[in-house]
Amino acid sequence: MDVFGDTDPRLMPVHFFGGAVHLDHASAIRADIQKQDYSVAPRHWYLDADFQCATCHQEFTWTASEQKAWFEKYRFWIDCHPRHCKKCRAAKRRLQELRWEYDSTVATTQRNGTCDEKRRIVAIIGELRDALGSVPQKMIDTAELLQRQITREEEQNASGNHL
Ligand SMILES: [Zn+2]
Predict the structure, then answer these.
(1) Which residues does residue 60 pair with via DSSP β-bridges, in sequence order?
(2) How many Å lie between the centroid of ligand 1 and the Cα of residue 42?
(3) Ligand 1 centre and the CA of 12: distance in Å?
(4) Contact criterion met (CB below 8 Å) for 122 and 143
(5) How confident is the model over 89-148, as pLDDT tens digits?
(6) Half-sphere CA count of 45, side-chain side, radius 13 A
(7) Do the Cβ atoms of 58 and 121 come closer than 8 Å?
(8) Is the pTM of this model over 0.85?
(9) How many Å lie between the centroid of ligand 1 and the Cα of residue 60?
């Protein structure tokens, strides 16, 4: 008797690959369910599954070996599957990191940052604006203020060198 597809990947619960546009059953590899985090139904197999990215709408393949890493190495909850392609996931992560860096450094940089620290904040705001299309007016004001300070310090340094 088959339980949750343990004898045949075609008999696995369909929600494991909910929304997939194609499943390649020939690519199926046996899972080590002892390493998985599940409560009722484990994933007995990993297999290449094609999804459409929720952000860019391109099709991408969630591969059997990626699934093995997700569920046996990182021990992600067994029911999850990706909604975004790798490129969009990486872009989203990058924006989160930039936003975190901005939030954690902007106040001290505005108070007493070096020119390099100010340049970094201006660069972060520029990258966020390029990626998102727009940023809050407060960020634009901050970038302009810091840029004026940088320019002034550079001018002071330049004139100082002549003395
Ligand atoms: Zn995408």
Answers:
(1) 51
(2) 28
(3) 26
(4) yes
(5) 999 999 999 999 999 999 999 999 999 999 999 999 999 999 999 999 999 999 999 999
(6) 23
(7) no
(8) no
(9) 8
Residues 6+ apart with CB under 8 A from 59: 21, 50, 51, 52, 53
Query: Tokens at residue 113, please?
Result: 């940052």
How far away, in angstroms, is 73 Cα from ligand 1 center? 24
Ligand 1 center to 22 CA (angstroms): 17
**Domain locations in the chain as residue ranges:** 9-84, 88-161
Sequence-separated contacts (24+) of 37-40 with Cβ below 8 Å: 37/71, 37/75, 37/76, 37/77, 37/78, 38/78
User: 8: which residues sit within 8 A by CB, 6+ positions away?
Assistant: 2
| Ligand 1 center–CA 149 separation, angstroms | 39
Question: Could you tell me the distance, in angstroms and rounded to a whole number, from the CA of residue 54 to the centre of ligand 1?
Answer: 7
User: What is the 20 CA–ligand 1 centroid distance (Å)?
Assistant: 14
Cα(47) to ligand 1 centroid in Å equals 20
